[in-house]
Specification:
By secondary structure, the protein is mostly helical. It has a single domain, classed as Four Helix Bundle (Hemerythrin (Met), subunit A) (Up-down Bundle). Helices cover about 75% and strands about 0% of the residues. It has six helices and no strands. Helix 3 packs antiparallel against helix 4 and helix 5 (about 80-100) packs antiparallel against helix 6 (about 105-125). The protein is elongated. The relative contact order is 0.15.
Length: about 130
């Protein structure tokens, strides 16, 4: 696992961190996406309450998680899916940075929606050996 991916996992804090150790890569990606979405929601709340410190911390964590998702992409496969996802992750990072600077909730909502779309698609993909939807 790359350093960025390890950092992303470290940014993802859940009540049951021990379950991360036993998660398969497919499940780990889903958890990272959920963690990024959650951090963006927390940043939105901090922004709405004028808490600039917390807003920055949560957005920093979301950006780290998204960077880790980008680092997990397998660019050795034929096709452009990994390149397109990488470009999208970079767009998300830039947009979250802009949202942080400009206190722009609309940009947070945009990135949350993009992550939810990707997560939904990822949920439809089954791990090798597992039937779809299992």
């Amino acid at each position: 696992m790359s350093n960025l991916a390890v950092k992303a996992v470290n940014q993802y804090q859940s009540a049951d961190n021990s379950s991360i150790v036993y998660a398969d890569p497919h499940e780990l990606i889903l958890r990272l996406m959920s963690g990024a979405i959650e951090r963006i929601a927390q940043a939105r709340g901090a922004m709405q309450h004028g808490n600039l410190t917390q807003k920055g911390e949560f957005l920093g964590k979301a950006i780290s998680i998204i960077g880790g998702l980008d680092a997990c992409l397998d660019h050795s496969q034929e096709g452009s899916l990994s390149t397109n996802l990488s470009d999208l992750y970079h767009y998300m990072i830039v947009t979250l940075t802009q949202a942080n600077i400009g206190d722009d909730i609309a940009k947070l909502n945009e990135i949350s929606a993009l992550l939810l779309d990707i997560k939904s698609a990822w949920e439809q993909i089954s791990e090798p050996g597992n039937p779809a939807g299992a």
